[in-house]
Amino acid sequence: MIKVAIVGASGYTGVELIRILHAHPEVAVTCVTSEQSAGRPVSDVFPTLRGRCDLILESLEPVGIAGQVDVVFTALPHKAAMAVVPTFLKMGKDVVDLSADYRLHDADVYGKWYEKHLTPELLPQAVYGLPELRRDKIREANLIANPGCYPTSVILGLAPLLKGKVIDPKSIIVDAKSGTSGAGRSAKVDNLYCEVNEGFKAYGVGGVHRHIPEIEQELALLAGTPLTISFTPHLVPMDRGILSTIYSVPTGKVTAAELVTLYEAFYEGEPFVRVLPEGVLPSTAHVRGSNFCDIGVVVDERTGRIIVVSAIDNLVKGASGQAVQNMNLMCGLPETLGLDFLGIFP
Amino acid sequence: MIKVAIVGASGYTGVELIRILHAHPEVAVTCVTSEQSAGRPVSDVFPTLRGRCDLILESLEPVGIAGQVDVVFTALPHKAAMAVVPTFLKMGKDVVDLSADYRLHDADVYGKWYEKHLTPELLPQAVYGLPELRRDKIREANLIANPGCYPTSVILGLAPLLKGKVIDPKSIIVDAKSGTSGAGRSAKVDNLYCEVNEGFKAYGVGGVHRHIPEIEQELALLAGTPLTISFTPHLVPMDRGILSTIYSVPTGKVTAAELVTLYEAFYEGEPFVRVLPEGVLPSTAHVRGSNFCDIGVVVDERTGRIIVVSAIDNLVKGASGQAVQNMNLMCGLPETLGLDFLGIFP
Amino acid sequence: MIKVAIVGASGYTGVELIRILHAHPEVAVTCVTSEQSAGRPVSDVFPTLRGRCDLILESLEPVGIAGQVDVVFTALPHKAAMAVVPTFLKMGKDVVDLSADYRLHDADVYGKWYEKHLTPELLPQAVYGLPELRRDKIREANLIANPGCYPTSVILGLAPLLKGKVIDPKSIIVDAKSGTSGAGRSAKVDNLYCEVNEGFKAYGVGGVHRHIPEIEQELALLAGTPLTISFTPHLVPMDRGILSTIYSVPTGKVTAAELVTLYEAFYEGEPFVRVLPEGVLPSTAHVRGSNFCDIGVVVDERTGRIIVVSAIDNLVKGASGQAVQNMNLMCGLPETLGLDFLGIFP
Amino acid sequence: MIKVAIVGASGYTGVELIRILHAHPEVAVTCVTSEQSAGRPVSDVFPTLRGRCDLILESLEPVGIAGQVDVVFTALPHKAAMAVVPTFLKMGKDVVDLSADYRLHDADVYGKWYEKHLTPELLPQAVYGLPELRRDKIREANLIANPGCYPTSVILGLAPLLKGKVIDPKSIIVDAKSGTSGAGRSAKVDNLYCEVNEGFKAYGVGGVHRHIPEIEQELALLAGTPLTISFTPHLVPMDRGILSTIYSVPTGKVTAAELVTLYEAFYEGEPFVRVLPEGVLPSTAHVRGSNFCDIGVVVDERTGRIIVVSAIDNLVKGASGQAVQNMNLMCGLPETLGLDFLGIFP
Questions:
Q1: TM spans, by residue (chains A, B, C, D) (predicted)?
Q2: Strand C273-275's sheet: what is its strand order?
Q3: DSSP label at A317?
Q4: What domains lie within chain B, and their CATH numbers?
């Protein structure tokens, strides 16, 4: 059994990691931390866990924790992650970091969108953990930068088009929509039930969302050229799910049928990407609770634009499920182990 | 008192008309029709009305109805509307038609997107009822084609940019999101609570939604040139509200501040359009139950694109509220009479 | 015009008062207060109000406020209300207090369920503002204790049975359910969207909810004898609405038809109580946004028990709507003025 | 591998069976039926299944189906089930019937609440499949009457009290609340999103719900005496979950602590019943997607009444999860096999 610590277990990605790993045949979660709830059983904070995972939440002491486990998942806010990840690495632990701290290859870009990076020397060894694009490197990594939720949906949605040089890289517009769990579990008026329910809004409009540099970094690698995208996130009154509607202009004439074939070829054999048949479009309801990314592709004959729609569960493929997928790869386990559960509907 | 008939009163726009007109000081709803519920009190179908509007739903007999009232609101499906509107007009009634039947000036375009038009000879006298653009013509009309919900949000969102020739008309992409009441009240599995709740999806992707010709017709008039847009509607798990996120490319350099000034000037004095200050964006939650259209404008400095976000309540400004606004204008009443209620929050 | 201050305007009952009074023909809201948002326009906190009520939120200075207005609505937490109400009264203002501070006639009971009362000398002059039971006293009062939301639904639901001595007063069990706006607008993890959505729970089980003494006080007056009830509140994942399911044992044999007749007689002429026909039961969806209380009565032939189901909008008849109804009575205005709007559906 | 057919797979309990059994290590679902969707892949009806279970839905031909499988789950409406179950039994198959057809021991009672029973001769061999009460009989059965959702929550909630003769059996009042998936997947206006959302209502009030005889049958067996209960179901605007609030009068004085001890002893070792500590109460959010039944017990010191609150996921412990638990027992597998997944939160 692989012993695992979940650092920052009182948030939604933390409890989702526990849920997923509880059913993983080769893993035992043996340590969970939370500053604000230290000393309480994690099942007190998340009663879904009662009777199955009643570990006491600990304060985060990196050295002590590293001594007890094989793998560490850091589900902390950015900056808090890079304060402790170096210690885990120094003690020889594999780390899957769910924060943004090791996703950007360039410390200056990180500095511009977040703040000054504390450990830029670790960036070269961090692997951006999107298995569909970087499976082999993940297998050899000891530090995985687990992708953001929006980036996962966008990069998987666009990879075949950019890799295949089908579209003009300057034409990309992403209109993305997220369920409310993406806003986290901190007590803010804006996230109260009555403030969110029965409303729909855009936020961070105008190219200011922090997931943008991460998306552009990965898309540029796929395209082989720098690019700039328009990205507008929205908040949906539901718990889980991200749907990205992605507009782009093809460099030549293409049909939807050709594109579906392209996507099917690109994602052939991928266990968690489902390319939908022509004419079928995804819904977040159909990936809820699962590690799938569903992708539909359409060509608007009137305007010539390509419209890609991709859907994930932001807490699973967009966070904790993908983190476990990365852990499986790092640990030499079958990639789908513990992850082949179906979505929950309704 | 103006006597009013609501033809097709067992749908959501029908009950919303009754709700609004109940508080209108110069109107009495005296006739309501429904084929499927004929013979039952409308308050049986919609118990919100109990004790305040207990009219018996009648079968639709145009001549009989026309004999009793001054104004007719037709809240019927397309095709059903054009089967009865001519009779109402012939008998000298003012008609506000909430269907799509008289919105398109060109019967051929109607034929292409819907079916063969039955009364193309009436199209020239029908006025597309967007008061912000066509107030004077509405005052003189006897047949108002009440705009669709998506079109209202998009046209109001883009009018200042197109009229001011600020953007390239070929660059317009509309990513629109609607609450579920837009799907109507017929019994379909797709609209069941458990199918809609906790899910978000696109539909009608690829330039096939029937509101497209209506939007393009009006935008072309504003731009002074034909244009083609990309339009993607989405379904939000909430009852009411439309939010349209609209992307376009300016012809020259502009700032958000300049655009807000442009919008404020364009909509100066408009009672139901609220141009939001720079940096503020609308939410459907803030227009729910009201006749407002809230508009925010942003410039993405990184890509140069303009992003307009507009929000309405699809049943009020997007349907029944706008219909009453049109009726007020047609009948020589103050435009805001009975419509100056605030949105309901939460 | 009656000039009105809303003290504590940044909560949900505050904005609901503004919404209702905006459409009231004889009232002008001229002062709104909020400690946490003082200095900001109230329309900044609640953008539904933008362009219609852009008053600046003030700090609460009772003397200054009293100098500007005729009537004060205090929408403060308990204890905060009784700290300022005496000043308003001393300065001759009519006060409608939406807190619990003046609802209980007995300061000792208040002390037991809340804390030591600061101004017990005012209790005799406070009138418990349920117009259906105490219309004449309200007309002469200058201090109205506006009833709690749960109590409104329960007292109106049981009044005919207790007044008519139809049931055993010791047999009453109230199973009540409330929408989330009843939990207020403060930033707590428990009230976050993701914590409330898609869940249903009981809280305050076992006779500990603070609305109990208020309910028992009023029911005892109706019954002419002290009584003790079982009361269990629940939280529903929706914004608005209270539904109380009330069980009791009749002292003799009765039929549902007889009970409906009893209720119709008891509430004859009441503008805001709708007694439903036999076999029809209320839903919170049918009173949402309105000042109605809908009541259905059933007899369970198998067990002999009477089941009353009553529904209100907790923010309207359960708070701000009833407060305006009381103000109308106090000020000699028609009781329904500004309140005769229909519920919003869907 | 045990081969399994799911008869009636296009409803919510059908897809939930597929979801659960997909992760069951000893089962292969090899046949799924649906009359209305015969010929389509089940993953077309429920896209969550795409790529994992793409079986073609067949028409229901009992003999043919029985020839291919070892165990049959019948997820049909009542009456439809008893039309085919005899054939499956005759062909030696184990049957778990999720309908009501074999739950009532007495065909006359069935006749009174449903209609004339077609195969009363099978009733003696049917075992009411509540493992916590009847584990040994289930192991030997070949026909399991899988309990209803409400009955599961109520019987588990009351069993310790009745078995322990702690309460007066005549005093039981059950106020139950269910998510909307309990209403099934047929296209009815009443179940549309906009009709259910943002509303809460009671239905089937007055002792008329068909789950009553089933509850009373099992409670009477526990109490050793016939009994009659008051039962009021309500509809909650959420997908999944049942919460039952159960009132009763103890025969003598008891404390909550004593009752918690009683419940803990009664359910000791039970894998799927979680007795909550004194002062803790269940929420449907904490059992969503899991096979748990969470139970909290409170004594109201003021009235002397006992209040039990129990929560389940209506589609799991209330239907498909319990069905798999029964199958495990029938087939000699570990009872928790394939069922030890955690609930999904949020």
A1: none
A2: C201-202, C230-235, C173-178, C242-248, C306-312, C293-299, C273-275
A3: I
A4: 2-147+317-330 (3.40.50.720), 150-314 (3.30.360.10)
Q: Do B344 and C289 touch (CB under 8 A)?
A: yes
Contact D23 A23 (CB under 8 A): yes
pLDDT tens for each residue of chain C, 346 residues long:
999 999 999 999 999 999 999 999 999 999 999 999 999 999 999 999 999 999 999 999 999 999 999 999 999 999 999 999 999 999 999 999 999 999 999 999 999 999 999 999 999 999 999 999 999 999 999 999 999 999 999 999 999 999 999 999 999 999 999 999 999 999 999 999 999 999 999 999 999 999 999 999 999 999 999 999 999 999 999 999 999 999 999 999 999 999 999 999 999 999 999 999 999 999 999 999 999 999 999 999 999 999 999 999 999 999 999 999 999 999 999 999 999 999 999 9
Catalytic-role residue among A31, A53, A149, A293: A149
Instruction: Extract the tokens encoding D108.
Output: 């006359």
Q: For B307, phi and psi rounded to 5 degrees?
A: -120, 120
CB contact under 8 A, B194 and D181: yes
**In Å, how far is A165's CA from the nearest CA of chain B?**
20
Residues of B forming the active site: 149
State the Cα–Cα distance between residues B84 and B100, nearest whole angstrom: 14
Query: Which residue in D31, D53, D149, D293 is the catalytic one?
Result: D149
Consecutive sets of 10 residues in chain D, 346 residues long: mean pLDDT of each? 97 98 98 97 98 98 96 97 98 98 98 98 98 98 98 98 98 98 96 98 97 98 98 98 98 97 98 98 98 98 98 98 98 98 98
- In angstroms, how far apart are the furthest CA atoms of chain C? 62
Length of chain A, in residues = 346
Most D CBs within 10 Å, among C180, C299, C303, C305, to test the D interface: C303
C53 a catalytic residue: no
Q: Compute the CA torsion angle D46, D47, D50, D52 (nearest 10 deg).
A: -50
- Which segments of A181-279 are extended strands (E)? 201-202, 230-235, 242-248, 273-275
Burial of B313 (0-12, 13-18, 19+ CB in 10 A): buried
Give A-chain residues touching C193 at CB under 8 angstroms.
Answer: 180, 191-193, 195-197, 237, 239
SS3 D15: helix
| Helical (H) or strand (E) element with C168 | none
Nearest to D239 among A51, A198, A346 (CB): A346
CB contact under 8 A, A197 and C194: no
Instruction: Give A12's contacts in chain C (Cβ within 8 Å).
Output: 194
CA B183 to chain C, closest CA, distance in angstroms equals 12
